[in-house]
Amino acid sequence: MKPVSVGICGLGTVGSGTFNILKRNAEKISGRIGREIVVTQVGARRDNPTCDLTGVDVTRDIFDVAKNPAVDVVVELIGGYDVAKELVLTAIEHGKHVVTANKALIAVHGNEIFAAAEKKGVTVAYEAAVAGGIPIIKAIREGLAANDIDHLSGIINGTGNFILTEMSQKGRDFEDVLKEAQELGYAEADPTFDVEGIDAAHKLTILASIAFGVPLQFEKAYTEGISKVTPQDVKFADELGYRIKHLGIAKLTEAGVELRVHPTLIHESQLIAKVDGVMNAVAVHGDGVGDTMYYGPGAGSEPTASAVIADLVDLARTFDADNNARPAHLGFRADSINNIGVLPVEDVETSYYLRLQVQDHTGVMAKLTQILSERDISIEAMIQKEAKGGNSNATVVLLTHEVKEQIMNEAIAAIEALEYVSGSVTRIRAEHSE
Amino acid sequence: MKPVSVGICGLGTVGSGTFNILKRNAEKISGRIGREIVVTQVGARRDNPTCDLTGVDVTRDIFDVAKNPAVDVVVELIGGYDVAKELVLTAIEHGKHVVTANKALIAVHGNEIFAAAEKKGVTVAYEAAVAGGIPIIKAIREGLAANDIDHLSGIINGTGNFILTEMSQKGRDFEDVLKEAQELGYAEADPTFDVEGIDAAHKLTILASIAFGVPLQFEKAYTEGISKVTPQDVKFADELGYRIKHLGIAKLTEAGVELRVHPTLIHESQLIAKVDGVMNAVAVHGDGVGDTMYYGPGAGSEPTASAVIADLVDLARTFDADNNARPAHLGFRADSINNIGVLPVEDVETSYYLRLQVQDHTGVMAKLTQILSERDISIEAMIQKEAKGGNSNATVVLLTHEVKEQIMNEAIAAIEALEYVSGSVTRIRAEHSE
What's the CATH code of the domain at A128? Predict the structure, then answer.
């Protein structure tokens, strides 16, 4: 069979990994599909010393690649929103399939991009956009296609998980570990996207859509970062038998879709609680299969390139077939996407970890528990610790059963208004083990 | 598009699950692929009370299904070797695609079956044959297609993992837990296939072939059961920081393929060491992606049916395309399969846990360590425990670095011949954490 001709746009971390693996494992790859995948053109602002570009047409204008009649598939690895979107739409316009690792682009502009691709009869593949080398898009769209998937949760930002793991295992504080992560190259100079959960929310938005068959709704995702998690909370969680992870959680409920990224207590008996360091993992629950989990490196040159090439292999295998032979962009075909909205976080029901300072005064605990019981919030576990050094303050930690966030907001306001409660209540959401 | 017509042969645990999920999630499934999957005929010795067969053509002769011109895909769920093989070959002969959950059939007769299917231009799909609901065949053949995969290991028998987990967490002994597993329905009345590792070896054979691109070579797999693992060994392993799991291990080395199922010490820091109970997990290492792991239920009606239906969905999606649009049966196309042989276990290099009884006599430890050092076997950890009650026996436990099995056999023979060593040496292989 005729080789599939690929044009790579962007020759940075992922682009160079893609180029190099395609070369190194060319025989293995063509042995799997019976046709070669050949990089015909590379569009990049500069060459990459790790890539031997001998014999490859190199251009400084990525749009040359998108318009090149000799290119069958355009691989978009430039990142960002605007130019990437224009590049992808240009490639589609020219009848080319697209492979991208750009989670921000798909989460924000995916609905528009997929509509354009379907109109033109081409495919935009994005396995590399979520959880790096883990074939999670394929697992959900194809491997679990029998299932009514009702929830999933993921550790889908390696930087955040590295920071929380260090805090948990070594008692270090956030700022200290962040600095190390930046020195190690795990975190960007501006770590906002990673530690504030925006990157995770991009990925979660994509996972929720393909799992539930709903449109991409990134703008409605609830996002809370890990910068306020303290070593003290990590330690109390540990005492309760929980780990704190920066979890992306998506659920399909009768009221709507939950789509939220925030620090989360997970019981230590759950496998995902044991996923440490920069590794990623996504747990998916389907009505037929039950609980499954997918684990691997969520970033890096060759892990991400592995996912880019998996998409190229799928495209090469089905190259002579039409779009129907490939999975629908969002897992479900456009006419089967259900326009179910995302719940405001106030309507989400979850469990809570609460930490507060109380003055050691008769009756304060009675008032505290009364506030909760009046709102039907039941307590699963409680820790009370007297302050050292003999002052009259105590730290109270509570783990509650599930309650609607709005009710919890009211309860917290009432607790903070109590005479003998000092300062504000720290609140971290918790996921109960099944 | 025209619906895909399915004939199900066998309406037991997995057959009924398949039938029921196809019905329950019909809308979700057709929403994903844009065409319906309809069960046209069921061939089963008896009806199943959980299945409403109204409107379905029911036959008592499964070969009716294999020959039925109205059936596009035959789902083989009768199990066993001979009749299943005849059924599958008959279906192929009649130009039908086949989906099977039969690991024994694929591991033993797969080479022949796939050759027949390829000659006829049809596909035999078998996601459900390995690790139940976990889409591990898809992950390896497609999701990791960019990679040179060099090793994988799996907990691929839920019964065995349940037994070892109970032994580890509760200090129970093998026979006691096996009896409970049988009462719970996890283990068959004749548990040989599960606890002696034959079932795991079937699955490992399949995984190794699709990962490495080698023929199915079940008859050359090394298989050792868990019936001789004692609570004492579980406890000593724990002291050393290890768990004992019944692991299937496949490696591609320069000398050949390692293919072995045996009790294995795994360091507790490895995620796969934390996979407990009846759950399955497969860890796969590729040169690009690094370490990945896939986790979920390895058996049961609906988990296995989830995998059967994933295959049906893939076939339905590519139904109008030819075999080239679907992954090659063994991951690599027939002309790219490398006929690499399986290493005899004597040639395998691994680490070892050794446990022996020594009489408390000057010089015995010196002789023991001399036997090891003469053979370049270095010791990673050692435990020596005096027997209680004042007799002069001590238990010695050693954890060694990697050495060829043949050398270890010689060392063990020499140790057992020592004057002050009582009885035989217990040996369990160990996998080092990376």
Answer: 3.40.50.720
